[in-house]
Amino acid sequence: MSSAPRVAEGGRGRNLAATIRRTVRDRPLLPLLILLAVLVGSLQFAQPGMLTPSWASTTIRFAVPLAILAACQTMTMLTGGIDLSVATVASMSAYIVFTQTPGQGPWVAIGIALLAALLVGLVNGIGVGVFRVHPLVMTIGMSLVVLGLITVYQRIMVASGSRIPAEVAWLGSGTSFGFVPNSLFLFIPLAAVLLFILHRTGFGRLLYAVGDNEAASRLAGVRVWQVLVALYVLVGLLAGIAGIVYGGLTNTATAALADGLLLPSVAAAVIGGTSIFGGRGGYEGSIVGALILTVLTTLLTVLDMPEPVRVILFGAIILVVASAYTRITAET
Amino acid sequence: MTSSAPARDRFSRAGTAGADVLRGFGRDTWTIALFGLLVGLLLVAKLSAPDYGATELTSLAIGALPIAFAAVAQTIVVISGGIDLSIGAMMALTSVVAASQMKDASPEAAVVVVIGVLVLGLVLGAINGLLIVVSRVPDIVVTLAMSYVWAGAALLVLDTPGGGAADWLQAMISGSVGVDFLPRALVVLVVCVGLVWLPLRRSRLGLSLYAIGSNRLAAFRGGVDVGRTKIAAYALTGLFSAAGGLTLTASTGIGTPIPGPYTLLAVAAVVLGGVSLAGGRGGIVGPIVAVFVLVLVRTDLTFLGVDANLSTVVQGAIMVGVVMIGAFVTLRRRRI
User: Fold this and answer.
1) In this complex, which of A1, A82, A137 lies closest to B323 when CB atoms are compared?
2) What is the nearest CA distance from B270 to chain A, expressed in angstroms?
3) What is the value of pTM for the model shown?
4) Which residues lie closer than 8 Å to B245 by C-beta, 6 or more apart?
5) Suppose A262 and one of A87, B168, B191, B282 were both cysteines; which one would form an S-S bond, judging by CB atoms 3.0 to 4.6 Å apart?
6) CA B52, CA B122: separation in Å to the nearest integer?
7) Could you tell me which residues of chain B have a Cβ less than 8 Å from any Cβ in chain A?
């Protein structure tokens, strides 16, 4: 499906295009960072004096939960899958933390929440890896199951009240040294570990291998089901962490808390250059993608556009970026 | 059965014992089993609530109607090897357009509105398809992004639920026809789907839909215009989404700009209905029956006194469980 070689409209122009294409393919992060810079620049243009350290701090605080959820999508997409249950799992874990804190104390509550998130991931993993259910179906089904369970749990816990633990509020919305968001203390090590896993470990390579050609990796002796189960467990855990951070940021916990982050998390991974068919991409791009989407939301808000136009532009821009990316990096 | 040829061909070409079994466990068996499940659920409803009758059947059909149209829309595009995550948003958009234009309009003008909205659906879907073909971005990403665009457009048309629906449109799906046990909504569904799907399935386009879903490259080499067929598939999906949107307006009397859960329910119904997400296989009856199963499960659980929220759990579990069992059975048979 490669585009036909274009007739040269003058050697120089063609060389330039080829150079751009090569640079982009070798350094996929570069155009994304340029786009991010352009967006930040236009923000300054739209509202001079907007770019302050406290603005940066707010942007990062909102980008962190999205970036963690984007990690879930990136890793599942690398294997050719997708996880549409992350938002529900994130809401669930935030809700458990908020409601268990009064009785159990914050740390036990966080432990219970992460354990529940991990269990959902395990079920997803068994469904996808062992029973070969399509990831889309498995994770939609699980998100229905989890949503129902939270609502039932909500009714049971309605008497016990809910409280946001100080630790979670500190993590989600607090800052240190003036402007440094506390969530970075969690996110930077987490991202480092994820990048290390993807780039330097056998598990990371297996994710790429399974996504690139599952049959070939099976023939090469990879136990695909084990890779998938491990992957979805990890993803469930990450979704749980993202939910707790987001709960601390928004100071609320409902069954639909993180629903609005589901599509952006997929979008962040896609505009970050991860192929939804598997085998290509990486987490670096998704982090920048999450930042781009967060800045874009701010920009559209600052431009004082009515809500519908904002939503339309959001979708259109995701589409344009994804399509430009596909076009530039397409094998020619 | 000529039109299901591509689906069959794929297996007979393999020619192994496993493929034969697979064919036996094909979509007909699956649909029949689903029908069995549906009848079972109806029996449970009748046993647990002895006065379950015509009224309840009618409300079941009205409740299932928008989901059924969404499922048909999704089925067509899935058969052609794609997926459309913007169905819910297209339904919201077409529903608010219909509601806002039909408010205080004469019955004759409402007919024009209905036709216009159906054409609008075709156009929305065609835009989705065109963008996928032109941009070469995966279907799931394009339709995801477009779901924002359509949802935003719906908010532009109506920022709060409102508008109105023509009386004849509302009457069209309420009550029953002839005998009490034949809900009008069901007739509307069967007629609308039958009018489009039956001729389509036997046409060249229908065959092409299965062909590009089954094997794009082979279809291309066999002379199918893959791009045009894909756009046609998405346009048909848009058409049925518009039909779904119209029934939303008809059943509630207003238009709501916020997309309902129809996209995901449609995916669930498609999978439950035995249509392979890989494309090229499956029919339209399975997903429709699956929609009724999903809706009826909820009713049954309510009759049985189960917490309404637990029925969401059961819906999800059924969806995953049925697919798991299906995969498990096929896997085991293939190994033997």
Assistant:
1) A137
2) 10
3) 0.83
4) B66, B90, B91, B92, B93, B94, B95, B97, B98, B117, B121
5) A87
6) 39
7) 83, 131, 135-138, 140-142, 144-149, 151-156, 159, 264, 267-268, 271, 277, 307, 309-317, 319-320, 323-324, 327-328, 331
